[in-house]
Amino acid sequence: MREFCIGLWLLVATSVPAAAQDAVYLIRHCEKELSEDDPALTPEGRQRAANWAEMLQHVGLDAVITSNALRTRETGGIIADALGLDVTALPGGDTAGLLDVLEFDHEEDSVLIVAHAETIPGILESLGVMEDVTIDQSEFDNLFAVLGPSSDAPAYVRLLMP
């Protein structure tokens, strides 16, 4: 975990953000129950969310945005509670609405987005990331960091939680 935090710190410290959006971090919701239409997190998922909060405590987050699914709201809520932040839940799959919220409500902020394996690639593309991103349904350990997302060439890195 120490190496992960050092890598994240180096990314933040050596990148030059654009004049507008400072940074956008994206994670997939944590491990979920398999029994319901709108499942809650498993105990492992709640622990992973707490680990994300610990890892993200020094990146200077200003806000947490989630989809309106229970599993994303729980993941984001655990992180936001640990960091003293509010959570905004938006309709899942509404990338245009999410981009509006980023542009108008969090223009100069560092924001964590908690989304889904199916929606993260589209969000990244909308933020200017040109890499083809896929997330397997069994993956819950990816952190995507986009610095200066409103610039022509945002800095982008994909890290894995150890």
Detailed description of the structure:
The chain is an alpha/beta fold. It has one domain (2-160): Phosphoglycerate mutase-like (Rossmann fold, 3-Layer(aba) Sandwich), CATH 3.40.50. It contains 5 helices and 6 strands. It has helices at residues 2-14, 43-56, 70-83, 95-105, 120-126; strands at residues 23-28, 63-67, 87-90, 110-115, 142-147, 155-160. A 6-stranded mixed β-sheet has the order 3-2-4-1-5-6, with helices on both faces. Helix 2 crosses helix 3 (70-83). The longest helix is centred in the N-terminal third of the chain and has 14 residues, at 43-56. The relative contact order is 0.24.
Total discrete domains: 1
Return the structural class: alpha/beta
User: What is the first-to-last residue Cα distance?
Assistant: 6 Å
Largest sheet: 6 strands, mixed
Find the CATH superfamily: Phosphoglycerate mutase-like
In total, the number of strands is 6
Radius of gyration: 14 Å
Beta-strand content bin: 15-25%
CATH architecture: 3-Layer(aba) Sandwich
Low-confidence stretches: 9-19
Shape: globular
What is the topology, as strand order, of the major beta sheet? 3-2-4-1-5-6
Assigned CATH class: Alpha Beta
Helices and strands, in order, run as HEHEHEHEHEE
